[in-house]
Amino acid sequence: MDASGSTIAANLARIELTILEACRRSGRRREEVQLIAVSKGRSVEEILAALACGLHQLGENRIEELEAKRPLVEQCAAAPVWHMIGHVQSRKAARVAAAGILVHSVDSVRLAERLDRQGAELGQAVRVLLQVNVSGEASKQGLDAATPAEIQQLLSDLDRVVALPHLQIEGLMTMAPQVPDPELARPVFAGLREVRDLCQERYPHTRWDTLSMGMSADYAIAIEEGATCVRVGRALFEPIWEG
Q1: What percent of the chain has a predicted confidence (pLDDT) above 90?
Q2: Beta partners for 231?
Q3: How far is Cα 109 from Cα 143, in angstroms, rounded to an integer?
Q4: Which residues pair with 129 in a beta bridge?
Q5: Could you report the per-residue pLDDT of 142-192, keeping only the tens digit for each?
Q6: Which domains, and CATH codes, for the chain?
Q7: Whole-number mean pLDDT of the chain?
């Protein structure tokens, strides 16, 4: 195993231990949490090393990068499961829909409608998570849900979204603010879980199984608050210096 593979293997062992401990603290099973390796900006060699360590889920931010890497990775390894975790521009919705992957970042009714139209043209449902801005940060994408009034507007908007016939909603996603103490992100993760509960109550026939939240700095807190997907890149691929 080369240096890159050794780094990834060591980091993955740390991450798995952290996930197990977070699951234990919150009374959950390890099988309830999916680890997505954020492969944006990583080489094909790094991705193959991650897959060789036993990872199966890959997350990309840009459709161009996913399209370029996918055939190179899949000709060398058993096909992984790809995720689109970055912002999707409406003009690229056709390419994202055609990729046949779970889109974590549906951040507007307009984008949902565009993906639905593309799904209709392809004759298949587009699998999506709805991105929710729980923190209220202006820099964050997503359907706003930082105040009671915004949550009510979100639920009203969902009346249109859940009716789209070629959109397969599977849950929600959020991004927490970058804070010095991961504990400060806990209210954001708890808030997404509460929004999910409201969605389940209002739309019981729609799937809300997935909560995609938590990244390298705060995924343990996210798991404690109910995350079913954590998106980890830096903590997996980069050397960790200790001492």
Answers
A1: 90
A2: 36
A3: 8
A4: 171
A5: 999 999 999 999 999 999 999 999 999 999 999 999 899 999 999 999 999
A6: 3-237 (3.20.20.10)
A7: 94
CB 112 within 8 A of CB 103: no
d(Cα 163, Cα 138) in Å, to the nearest integer?
28
pLDDT on residue 242: 47
Task: For residue 170, give both structure tokens.
Answer: 């599977």
- Distance between start and end Cα atoms, the chain: 24
Size of the chain, expressed as the number of residues it contains:
243
Model's pTM, two decimal places? 0.94
Give ∠ CA 204-170-86 in degrees, rounded to 5. 145
* Confidence grade of residue 78 (pLDDT, cut at 50, 70, 90): confident
Residue ranges with strand state E in 9-95: 34-38, 57-60, 81-84
Query: What type of residue sits at position 31?
Result: E
Residues 242, 117: Cα–Cα separation, whole Å:
50
Exposure of 146 by Cβ count < 10 A (0-12 exposed, 13-18 middle, 19+ buried)?
middle
Which residues make beta-bridge pairs with 232? 37
Beta bridge partners of 167: 126
Residues 6 or more apart in contact with residue 71 via CB below 8 angstroms: none
Tokens standing for residue 130: 């709805």
Q: What is the mean pLDDT of residues 48-67?
A: 96
* Bridge partners (DSSP) listed for residue 57: 81
The Cα 233–Cα 217 span in angstroms is 10
Cα 86 to its chain centre, rounded Å, is: 9
In the chain, the amino acid numbered 148 is P
Residue in the block written with tokens 């999910």: 196
